[in-house]
Amino acid sequence: MSITRTSTVPVHPQFLERMSPRAFVPEALSTAQVEQLVEAAHWAPSASNKQPWHFAYALRGDASWEAFSRIPNEANRRWCLNAGALIVLLSDKQASGKHSFDAGCAWGYLALQAHAMGLATHAMGGFSADEAGSVLGLPEHLSAECVIAVGRRGDASTLPDDLREREVPSLRKPLAQVLSAGAVPASITA
After folding, report:
1. Is residue 177 included in any domain, yes or no?
2. Could you give the number of structural domains in the chain?
């Protein structure tokens, strides 16, 4: 199945081209590539410039890989362990009341930088916060927000059947369902 994304108003092509695949080529990224991704991410805007994010990573095959591989849940481990790197995005609850919001913006910058580098990313909410805390030795004020698989996009044929079917760009709601001039329509607030 092929899906072509289109927008109703002009936007930069990167927004339509980027997607979150599950198929990755099983080869490690370099430290320099991860540094480039996080360099872009740390330029994201944040409330009062608190920059409440931190990125902890393991490269495929390095000394931390096995421990990091236990953080995603079982369903996500089926595919994410082929990625070149796993990155855990953390936010500092003490820095700002908007720590999760700001960390999410940083994730978006990282995803767009990866796309510009010819890499693919897939952020996962399906992970064990307890395992992340244990593996990373997290203090109480740091919260694991997501795990990000990063690498070169692989062929969908490498995925289990149920995931192969989903390896297409997802569509979005029509703009009219996510934008209102003035008051929010009753259909949205209901």
Report:
1. no
2. 1
In a domain, 174, yes or no: no
Q: Which two tokens stand for residue 84?
A: 């070149």
- Write the CATH number for 54: 3.40.109.10
pTM of the model: 0.93
Tell me, yes or no, whether 185 lies in a domain. Answer: no
For residue 20, give the nearest of 189, 185, 172 by alpha carbon: 172
Nearest by Cα to 25 from 153, 143, 117: 153
* Cα diameter, the chain: 53
Backbone angles phi, psi at 140, to 5 degrees: -55, -35
Residue 32 lies in domain: 27-155
First to last CA, the chain: 34
Cα–Cα distance between 36 and 39 in angstroms, integer? 5
Contact 80, 149 (CB under 8 A): yes
**Residue (of 148, 139, 128) closest to 58 by Cα position:** 148
Q: 51: alpha, beta or left, given left = phi > 0 and alpha = psi -120 to 50?
A: left
Per-residue pLDDT reduced to its tens digit, 102-123: 999 999 999 999 999 999 999 9
